[in-house]
Design a protein that fits this description.
binds adenosine-5'-diphosphate, 2 domains, Aldehyde_DH_dom, aldehyde dehydrogenase (NAD+) activity, Ald_DH_N, alpha/beta, 6-stranded mixed beta sheet
């Protein structure tokens, strides 16, 4: 492997170790369906070892380190990360098939995430509380302890940045368990933490199967908090498994984001965003505008534009910089997407373009699927209600603001939404009524380190990024000090 990272060991306690009850197995390149490298995965005992290392680091050097030194280490790591963008993008693209032009763009931003969190590490003060003269009351903020970070296969390094950045800035230590389908880039990340000189055990990386390694991490009594990105059904399993130990959880779950195009919008710009968002990451991101709500006067025009623009998407080998869209990240996801194409057809939606696996030369063994557009979709169809996670746009016509809002809010999800209009009043009215953790107006998927990200309803609990992104990793302690030293005898009379 040209990047020079090794993947056949786990990173535990600052050392590269062979799995105790896991093993080494091939990771599959979704562009070819073939193994591309051997990756270590851990079992329950490996997780136990990682948690023990994280606990020792938390109680030892990491807790004693002044926050500005923690910040300096994070900055050093961030600078190192910035030098490795190309190599990290190559590893991630190999593992999950995301077009390398997208991987590079995304991973190119991550150093700034770590810098942002580093900048907060020594500013996590509490506050003084106005009281009467007899006491002085103040709060201090403390790291919760060992964090289990469980990440998904679509954006492993981004999810790691969103969890490890704030956790480390807050003074926690971490066991990172990436998804079983895409473990390699998280092990590459471990190399950079090692090189930056983090004390052993502060960051541990143990790939492994969700129901084995993930489950052990969740139920481990020494894990104070789970930061999870994945499916709602898994979140419910995690919540139950962590109940006995009262493990704190934050969840970033799915989405079925409405992307609303009003007839008065700047349609060219709106179409750039709406089509880009339909097919980015081959449809595999929870914030994508997979439901395109279009006001009737421009409906035909928008449907035609989607058809025309789908033909311009260059589907191909993801490591080719010219490729716009790679394959689905694994075979199960390919099958899921194709099954939703059948569901959409059966429900009576109009398949405008795409909908099939691509079997042309060079791509037939990979998990490639055509950019797909359904029009004439109604809000209650399954393809408009359920998360497909494939490159499938569902175009839904509407009349007026009220119907737009009602359709937008009609799914169990509430992660993100976008709306396009030239009417400022309407932009504010509609944005306020949409049930979502984030609303973009005349833009889409603008996501940064400083802007809180997360969902309402079935899309999750808690926020990542922004100053709020540190809250789940901190406890508040209130200290109340008497200024008089006197305490009345309750039994005096
Ligand atoms: P997806 O459909 O995106 O694969 P999952 O929720 O299944 O979503 O996976 C997201 C992450 O959760 C992965 O790292 C996976 O290994 C992990 N995971 C799956 N099942 C469990 C579980 N029972 N306990 C803890 N983690 C799990």
């Amino acid at each position: 492997m040209s990047t020079g990272f090794r993947f056949d060991r786990l990173f535990i306690g600052g050392a590269w170790v062979a799995p105790i009850d896991g093993g080494v197995r091939p990771s599959i390149d979704p562009a070819t369906g073939q193994p591309w490298g051997d990756v270590a995965y851990g079992g329950a005992r490996d997780i136990d070892a990682a948690v023990a290392a994280a606990k020792a680091a938390f109680e030892g050097p990491w807790r004693r380190m002044p926050p500005w030194e923690r910040a300096a280490l994070l900055r050093k790591f961030a600078d190192l990360y910035a030098t490795q963008v190309g190599a990290l993008a190559e590893v991630e693209t190999r593992d999950n098939g995301r077009a390398v032009r997208e991987s590079r763009g995304d991973i190119g931003l991550h150093a700034q995430y770590y810098h942002w969190f580093a900048s907060l590490a020594d500013k996590l003060g509490g506050r003084t509380i106005p009281m009467d003269d007899s006491v002085h009351a103040f709060t201090t903020r403390h790291p919760v302890g060992v964090v289990g970070a469980i990440t998904p296969w679509n954006v492993p390094l981004m999810a790691a940045a969103w969890k490890l950045g704030p956790a480390l800035a807050a003074g926690c230590t971490v066991v990172l368990k990436p998804a079983e389908q895409t473990p390699a880039s998280s092990l590459a990340l471990a190399h950079l933490f090692e090189e930056a000189g983090f004390p052993p055990g502060v960051v541990n990386v143990v790939p492994g199967d969700g129901p084995v390694a993930g489950a052990r991490l969740v139920e481990h009594p020494d894990v104070a908090k789970i930061s999870f990105t994945g499916e709602g059904t898994t979140a419910k399993t995690i919540l139950k498994a962590g109940a006995d130990t009262l493990t704190r959880c934050t969840f970033e779950l799915g989405g079925k984001a409405p992307h609303i195009l009003f007839a008065d919008a700047d349609l060219d710009q709106a179409l750039n965003a709406a089509t880009g968002s339909a097919w980015a990451l081959c449809g595999q991101s929870c914030a994508l505008g997979s439901r395109v709500l279009v006001e009737r006067p421009v409906y035909d025009k928008v449907v035609e534009a989607f058809r025309a623009r789908a033909a311009r998407v260059r589907v191909g080998i993801p490591l080719d910089p010219a490729t716009h869209m790679g394959p689905q990240a694994h075979q199960q996801q390919l099958e899921k997407t194709l099954s939703y194409v059948s569901i959409g057809r059966a429900e009576g939606a109009e398949l405008i373009t795409g909908g099939a696996r691509i079997d042309r030369d060079g791509l037939a063994d990979g998990y490639f699927v055509e950019p797909t557009v359904f029009a004439g979709v109604s809000a209650n169809m399954r393809i408009a209600q359920e998360e497909i996670f494939g490159p499938v746009a569902a175009i839904i016509p509407f009349d007026g603001e009220d119907e737009a809002v009602s359709i937008a809010n009609s799914t169990p999800y509430g992660l993100a939404a976008g709306l396009w209009t030239r009417d400022t009043g309407r932009a504010h009215r509609v944005a306020a009524r949409i049930e979502a953790g984030m609303v973009w107006v005349n833009t889409y998927r603008y996501i940064r380190w400083s802007t809180p990200y997360g969902g309402v309803k079935a899309s999750g609990w808690g926020r990542e990024n922004g100053i709020e992104g540190l809250d789940p990793f901190l406890e508040t302690k209130t200290t109340i000090v008497s200024t008089t030293g006197t305490f009345a005898d309750p039994f005096a009379n």
